[in-house]
């Protein structure tokens, strides 16, 4: 039987939550709800899989824009000592205009050998 780990994950700017119990073959999930940068909003989930595959699903929207806003997301992942293990560069949202929300997805990779060291993640960026 796979061992279980309890994880409480805290991001620098907002809380990121993971399931209370995670089996060894399950992805780790980090969630953000209504993170803000200027007039822009973003809610999203980062899933880190043990094989080194990462998926970021997000919904973003803007309150005000004449030319269309773009959320430039930066995600960083840390160990229990708050040392950065890896990041994913900048992932951009679609161009956003008021009155609509935009669902988008980005995928990336990370060294699978670091999966067991993951403790927290944070979402940054600008819009």
Characterization of this structure:
With 127 residues, this protein is an all-beta fold. Helix content is 0%, strand content 53%. The strands form three sheets. The chain has a four-stranded antiparallel sheet with strand order 3-4-5-8, with no helix packed on it. It has a three-stranded antiparallel sheet with strand order 7-6-9, with no helix packed on it. Strands 1-2 form a two-stranded antiparallel sheet. Strand 6 (72-78) and strand 7 (84-92) form a beta hairpin. The radius of gyration is 15 Å and the shape is elongated. It starts with a strand and ends with a strand. Mean pLDDT is 85; it is low at 1-15 and 17-21.
Break the fold down into its secondary structure elements and pairings:
Blueprint: E1 4-6, E2 21-23, E3 28-37, E4 40-48, E5 53-62, E6 72-78, E7 84-92, E8 101-109, E9 120-126
Antiparallel strand pairs: 1-2, 3-4, 4-5, 5-8, 6-7, 6-9
């Amino acid at each position: 039987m796979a061992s279980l780990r309890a994880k409480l994950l805290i991001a620098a700017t907002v809380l990121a939550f993971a399931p209370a119990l995670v089996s060894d073959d399950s992805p780790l999930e980090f969630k953000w709800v209504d993170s803000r940068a200027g007039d822009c909003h973003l809610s999203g989930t980062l899933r880190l899989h043990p094989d080194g595959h990462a998926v970021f699903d997000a919904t973003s929207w803007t309150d005000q824009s004449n030319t269309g806003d773009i959320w430039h997301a930066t995600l960083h992942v840390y160990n229990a000592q708050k040392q950065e293990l890896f990041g994913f560069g900048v992932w951009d949202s679609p161009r956003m205009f008021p009155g609509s929300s935009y669902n988008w997805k980005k995928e990336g990779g990370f060294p699978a050998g670091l999966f067991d060291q993951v403790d927290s993640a944070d979402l940054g960026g600008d819009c």
